[in-house]
Design brief:
Strand content: 15-25%
Order of helices and strands: EHEHHEHEHHEHEHEHEHHHH
CATH architecture of the largest domain: Alpha-Beta Barrel
Number of domains: 2
Structural class: alpha/beta
Shape: globular
CATH superfamily of the largest domain: Aldolase class I
Helix content: 25-40%
CATH topology of the largest domain: TIM Barrel
Number of strands: 8
Number of helices: 13
Strand order of the largest sheet: 1-2-3-4-5-6-7-8
Distance between the termini: 51 Å
Largest sheet: 8 strands, parallel, barrel
Length: about 325
């Protein structure tokens, strides 16, 4: 089986997995605007898949659209046996790889022992990686942070992960405690490169944190040419075309919003989706043009896609 990580350009660009954002609907919108080299799914809890009650929701999160491929399934949890069960199932779902989230700062995820909390349980983290690798021929990667509480934790944590012979390692350049409030620690990039080169030179190293668009990745790559890839997260909220050099017009943003509405309605026919979370996306399309904030305020008062379309026709 081909290793997708070996077939990507350098540097490659990835849309960061974001809960409630990078679902199968929004990924299709991004693909229309200008897709990254690689998509990740939303987070899927391995223990949800292992339970009869949660399996349907887990599989819904793992839905793939034709425009998604290549795509990596991102999973999280703390039960090694559940990692084995879900990763084994992923072999048949069309994914190009599996990424284990060990960096999510959400307090509910952390209380459950997953995400960034795994930094505090390194032996368990290693066991979960091991079980995932044994359950599949797909390449296994990890997304993490520099530490949970203290920045210095990276000195032990990152080398430990690199020793697991991962296909790729994404490092969000902050600790869990810093959330997104502190600037990303770009000053550590050179040291991360040295650690990768020394411990696991075949592991692709990806940088995440405060990267807004393609132009910024090009500047970073010029400064750090040994970085293999860059992951953009919040930048998508200010420009859905962030993986391209294109500056969208108002009409292009409206076209994307209408596409999002159409895809949302189509998706609802197969799987119930609440309308309210859809409002989080309005700011992506309604910004940087005169009257955008007023129009966005009107849409925030709607209760259906039909109401949204009616307001858009009037504006």
């Amino acid at each position: 089986m081909q290793n997708i990580w070996e077939n990507l350009p350098k540097p490659f660009l990835i849309l960061a997995p974001m809960e409630g954002v990078t679902d199968v609907v929004f990924r299709q919108v991004v693909a229309k605007a200008g897709r990254p080299d690689l998509f990740f799914t939303e987070f899927t809890n391995v223990s949800s898949y292992a339970s009869e009650k949660g399996r349907h929701d887990a599989l819904d999160r793992l839905t793939i659209a034709p425009t998604d491929t290549p795509i990596i399934a991102q999973i999280w949890g703390k039960n090694p046996d559940h990692f084995s069960e879900l990763v084994s199932a992923l072999n048949k779902l069309g994914f190009s790889g599996v990424d284990i989230n060990m960096g999510c700062p959400d307090r509910h995820v952390n209380r459950a022992g997953g995400g960034a909390a795994m930094i505090k349980t390194p032996e368990l983290a290693i066991e979960c990686i091991k079980c995932a690798k044994e359950a599949t021929n797909l390449p296994i990667s990890v997304k993490t942070r520099l530490g949970f509480t203290y920045l210095e934790e990276y000195k032990d944590w990152i080398p430990l992960l690199l020793k697991q012979d991962l296909a790729a390692l994404t490092v969000h350049l902050r600790t869990r405690k810093e959330m997104s409030k502190a600037p990303a620690h770009y000053e550590l990039i050179s040291e991360l490169i040295e650690l990768r080169n020394e411990i696991s030179p075949n592991t692709k190293l990806i940088i995440n944190g405060d990267i807004k668009d393609k132009a910024e990745t090009e500047k970073l790559h010029q400064k750090y040419p040994e970085i293999d890839g860059f992951m953009i997260g919040r930048g998508i909220f200010t420009n859905p075309y962030c993986f391209t050099d294109h500056t969208p017009t108002r009409s292009e943003l409206m076209e994307l919003l209408n596409l999002h509405l159409d895809l949302f309605d189509k998706s609802c026919k197969d799987q119930y989706r609440s309308f309210e979370p859809l409002k989080h996306f309005f700011k992506i399309y309604l910004n940087n043009f005169p009257g955008a904030s007023n129009l966005r305020a009107k849409l925030m008062e709607t209760h259906s896609t039909a109401e949204v379309r009616a307001i858009l026709k009037q504006n």
